[in-house]
Amino acid sequence: MITFDDVVKVYPGGGTAVDHVSLELPTGKTTVFVGPSGCGKTTSLRMINRMISPTSGRVLIDGQDVAGQDEALLRRGIGYVIQHAGLFPHRTVLDNVATVPVLLGKTRREARTAALELLERVGLAPEFAKRYPAQLSGGQQQRVGVARALAADPPVMLMDEPFSAVDPVVREQLHREFLRLQKDLGKTIAMVTHDIDEAIKLGDVVVIFRQGGVVAQVGTPQELLADPADEFVAEFVGRDRGLRSLSFDTAAELPVLPVPAELVLDEAGRPLGWKTGADDVRPTGGTFTSADTLRLVADLAILSPVGIAVRVDADGKADGITPHHDLADYLAARRG
Amino acid sequence: MNLDYLFDAAHWDFSAGSIPQLILSHLWYVLLALAIGTVIALPIGLYIGHTGRGSFIAINAGNAGRSLPTLGLLMLMVTLLGLGLLPVLIALTVLVIPPILTSAYAGLRSLDQRVVDAARGVGMRPWQVLTRVELPMALPVLMSGFRSAALQVVATATVAAAVGLGGLGRLLIDGLAVNDYSRVLAGAIVVAVLAVLLDLVLAFAQRWIVSPGLRVSR
Ligand SMILES: Nc1ncnc2c1ncn2[C@@H]1O[C@H](COP(=O)(O)OP(=O)(O)OP(=O)(O)O)[C@@H](O)[C@H]1O
Ligand SMILES: [Mg+2]
């Protein structure tokens, strides 16, 4: 667990960057710092690995004040993914990833062997190992940055806007891989972003900062969407938070109706489309399974030519339908 | 004026005062001055570049060094210390220090500070940051400073002959003394060729020691 105990940071000649922040970042979970530019997110993050020292207050990792620890040793034990990757341009991808294990006393050989495995883990083919950072795309550099931070298998990871320098499609992909990796590894992660959607998607706990380095609200994504503490948070999490909150629940308990005759199926029972006229069949616009989110169901109901979302089983066979008014009723009942 | 002196086989026989022998003594002064100058200027330049402290020294050293007349300095040193290798080396070293110091400083200052920050962030100690990240990344700039120092000192080491030492300056001074312009021309040509060759060797060394990752065009 990482604890911020009444932490203040005042830059000489600058204003207050972090203002009496007290926080707990649970072990094995991802905590995301989010807020508008200049509100002290990076400053807070860098106080964890002593890249910045607090003006007053303490930062503790598992009860140990970081201020009392050897800077270099502390940092080697904390993975750090830097805004815009921060890779060493004169070192190959492999040697970039091997950096911390070598600092920790591993031989270059051992470190490289392990680094090669890590590259695969973050989705980079082995042929990238011998390349230099300048020969990679932005997304590939981000992956190397993550691999470098993971290399010494640190229990704690700090990530400063790790997915900011890539286009939305690649970001989406990196998000999926991040969630998959974190599910396997269960690191204690502190991540910074100014993208609330990213925070909601990746965070177990989200900390919303406001201007002046003040914490506006701490909570799970669900809590923030359902119950924003004030105007600022409500504004910040956005107007479509009702729709977005549907991302947290699956369609497992959503009731369905039997498949009607208007739904045209192929011989294996897979939906082909809706019969809307004598020989007029329109595509369904997609299907969901009971593991998908309610947001997808809502989306399908809106897209469907007849306002009905189609559920399929694991084999892709149609096994039920949900008209949008049934979905609305279900959501209303769920709200209680 | 002609090339007779240069192409006379008798001047290439390795005897005292022959061209090969003058080249060797010339190179010896050059290498000594470069070595001493590097040992003095590199740490100072790196220190200033790494810490950012005393940058005015690095900036002014460049200007001061360029405006100092080497021959004048040499005469002053001879007056103070008497004849010998020492005053020559001092004068040449003073010539070598500014470009090396300035390039070491500028090389470190021009680095992407986010990368230096990353080096600290992954847990390198200050010395490791300098030797494993800053220095390798600054090498291209550093080498260009070193090469310009080498070129200058090859040309200027001819002053050694003015105070009775060897080196290719002998051809110039002795040639002028006896109105043997063929010999003067030979001296000028050999100095020029030596400068070009030395620069080639250094260019090759640079290719070899600078990481390919820094050569990749972005
Ligand atoms: N070294 C510094 N000296 C003075 N002021 C600083 C320094 N670093 C940051 N600040 C100020 O402290 C405040 C918080 O900065 P910080 O970098 O933590 O913001 P941030 O939330 O990470 O912003 P962004 O989303 O733009 O990265 C800002 O007002 C910034 O101008
Ligand atoms: Mg920031």
TrEMBL record, chain A:
Annotated ranges, domain ABC transporter: 2-237
Protein name: ATP-binding cassette domain-containing protein
Family of the protein in this entry: Belongs to the ABC transporter superfamily.
Signal peptide: none
Annotated coiled-coil segments of the chain: none
A Pfam family hit: ABC_tran
Domain of life: Bacteria
Gene3D superfamilies to which the protein is assigned, alphabetical: P-loop containing nucleotide triphosphate hydrolases
UniProt keywords, alphabetically: ATP-binding, Nucleotide-binding, Transport
Gene Ontology MF annotations: ATP binding
Keyword Nucleotide-binding: yes
UniProt keyword Disulfide bond present: no
From TrEMBL, chain B:
TM segment ranges: 27-49, 70-101, 149-173, 185-209
Lineage per the UniProt record: Bacteria, Bacillati, Actinomycetota, Actinomycetes, Micromonosporales
Keywords tagged on the record: Membrane, Transmembrane, Transmembrane helix, Transport
Keyword Magnesium annotated: no
Membrane topology, as annotated: Multi-pass membrane protein
Name of the molecule in the record: ABC transporter permease subunit
CDD domains: TM_PBP2
Compartments where located: Cell membrane; Membrane
